[in-house]
C-alpha cells in the first residue's frame, strides 16, 4: 500500500472510467504546505485565515497577511489556492477584538457578519488588500464564509471591487483572473444556490456547519451527535441542489467540510458530481486510491438511489456498503 500511495502522490485523481476530480487540502497556516505537497494535493481548497488572527497578539498588519498569502501561493507553484476571508466569532475568539457576549454564538455575530459591520470594516478591507496584492504570486481564489443572503455576497463583492480599484489606481499590480466564491454552509444559501450561482464564481460546501444548521444539532455537543448525519438524505439532497445549480451556470462546486474526505461519502459525492474535494492532507492519497477504483456511472446510479429511494441515514450507509461489496 505504501508503494501504491508513493506513486499516487504525483498522479492526478482519475476514476476507473477516466474522469478527473480535484483533490485539494485544507490548511491553517503556510507551515502546513509541507504536508500538502508530501501528500500530492492538486490545490489548496481551504486556507482558514483566522489562525493568522488567532496566533497573533494584535491585528495582523496588511504586510503580515500579504507575506503569509504570498508564501502559500508561491508554495503551491501555480496550483489553485482558495483563501477564506476571516471566520472569527462562533467558537473562535480574539483577545484583542471585543465581541459582545452571546447566548448562541454559532447563530450570532461571526465571520462575514463581522466583516460587513462597522466593527469589522477596516479588518476586512485590510485583508482584501493583502489578498489582492498577493494575487500576482499564484492562482488565487477568494471565498467568503457564512453567507446567508445574496445581499451579503453583493456587499462583500462591492468592498472587494472597491479595494481592487483603489490598488489599480495606485498602480499596484493585481491579477485579473481571481475567482470570488462563497462557502455554502447555511441552509438558506444552499436552498437558494440557483440564484447565487448566477453571481459567484464557485461554491465550496462547508458541511461541518451545513450539517449542524440543517439538523439543528451543535457539531460539538455529544448529547446530540447522533443527529449529526452527513449521510442523511436531506443533506445529500441539499448538496445535489448546490452542485446542479453551479453546473447549470457553468460554475464549479467543491466541498471543504470533513465530509469531503469521508470514505463512505466520497462515492456518493462522486455520483452527485462534486468537482473538487478538499480535506486534511493526510486523507488525500487514500481518497485518490479509492476514486481510482470507482466508476462514475455506477456512482451516479448509487447516488440516485440514495437520493430517491432512501428514507434514513442508515439506509444510505447500507446502500453504500452494498456497492462496496
Ligand atoms: C465547514 O463549516 O464545513 C468548514 C469547512 O468551515 P469550519 O470548519 O472552519 O467552520
Ligand atoms: Mg464553517
Automatic annotation (TrEMBL):
Top-level class of the enzyme under EC nomenclature: transferase
GO biological process, one term: phosphoenolpyruvate-dependent sugar phosphotransferase system
Catalytic residues (UniProt): 256 (proton donor)
Record field: transmembrane: none
PEP-utilising enzyme C-terminal domain ranges (all copies): 2-295
Presence of the UniProt keyword Cytoplasm in the record: yes
Main location per the UniProt record: cytoplasm
Residues annotated as signal peptide: none
UniProt keyword annotations, A-Z: Cytoplasm, Kinase, Magnesium, Metal-binding, Phosphotransferase system, Pyruvate, Sugar transport, Transferase, Transport
A GO MF term: phosphoenolpyruvate-protein phosphotransferase activity
Cofactor: Mg(2+)
Functional summary from the UniProt entry: General (non sugar-specific) component of the phosphoenolpyruvate-dependent sugar phosphotransferase system (sugar PTS). This major carbohydrate active-transport system catalyzes the phosphorylation of incoming sugar substrates concomitantly with their translocation across the cell membrane. Enzyme I transfers the phosphoryl group from phosphoenolpyruvate (PEP) to the phosphoryl carrier protein (HPr).
Family: Belongs to the PEP-utilizing enzyme family.
Protein name: Phosphoenolpyruvate-protein phosphotransferase
Gene: ptsP
Residues of the full protein shown: 251 to 575 of 575
Amino acid at each position: 500500500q505504501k508503494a501504491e500511495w508513493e506513486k499516487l502522490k504525483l498522479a492526478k485523481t482519475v476514476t476507473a472510467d477516466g474522469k478527473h476530480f480535484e483533490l485539494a487540502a485544507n490548511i491553517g497556516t503556510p507551515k502546513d504546505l509541507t504536508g500538502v505537497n508530501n501528500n500530492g494535493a492538486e490545490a489548496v481548497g481551504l486556507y482558514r485565515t483566522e489562525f493568522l488572527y488567532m496566533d497573533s497578539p494584535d491585528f495582523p498588519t496588511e504586510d503580515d497577511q500579504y507575506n503569509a498569502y504570498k508564501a502559500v501561493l508561491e508554495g503551491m507553484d501555480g496550483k489553485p489556492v482558495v483563501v477564506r476571508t476571516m471566520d472569527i466569532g462562533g467558537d473562535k475568539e480574539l483577545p484583542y477584538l471585543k465581541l459582545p457576549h452571546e447566548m448562541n454564538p454559532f447563530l450570532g455575530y461571526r465571520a462575514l457578519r463581522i466583516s460587513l459591520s462597522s466593527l469589522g470594516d477596516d479588518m476586512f478591507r485590510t485583508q482584501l488588500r493583502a489578498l489582492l496584492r498577493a494575487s500576482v504570486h499564484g492562482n488565487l481564489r477568494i471565498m467568503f464564509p457564512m453567507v446567508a443572503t445574496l445581499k451579503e455576497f453583493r456587499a462583500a463583492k462591492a468592498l472587494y471591487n472597491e479595494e481592487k480599484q483603489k490598488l489599480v489606481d495606485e498602480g499596484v499590480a493585481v491579477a485579473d483572473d481571481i475567482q470570488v466564491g462563497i462557502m455554502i454552509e447555511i441552509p438558506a444559501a444552499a436552498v437558494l444556490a440557483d440564484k447565487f450561482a448566477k453571481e459567484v464564481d464557485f461554491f465550496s460546501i462547508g458541511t461541518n456547519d451545513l450539517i449542524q444548521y440543517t439538523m439543528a444539532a451543535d457539531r460539538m455537543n455529544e448529547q446530540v451527535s447522533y443527529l449529526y448525519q452527513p449521510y442523511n438524505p436531506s443533506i445529500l439532497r441539499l448538496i445535489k441542489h448546490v452542485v446542479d445549480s453551479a453546473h447549470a451556470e457553468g460554475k464549479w462546486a467543491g466541498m471543504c467540510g470533513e465530509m469531503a474526505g469521508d470514505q463512505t461519502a466520497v462515492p456518493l459525492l462522486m455520483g452527485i458530481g462534486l468537482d473538487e474535494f478538499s480535506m486534511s492532507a493526510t486523507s488525500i492519497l487514500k481518497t485518490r486510491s479509492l476514486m481510482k477504483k470507482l466508476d462514475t456511472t455506477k456512482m451516479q446510479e448509487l447516488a440516485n438511489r440514495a437520493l430517491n429511494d432512501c428514507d434514513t441515514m442508515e439506509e444510505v450507509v447500507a446502500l453504500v456498503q452494498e456497492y462496496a461489496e
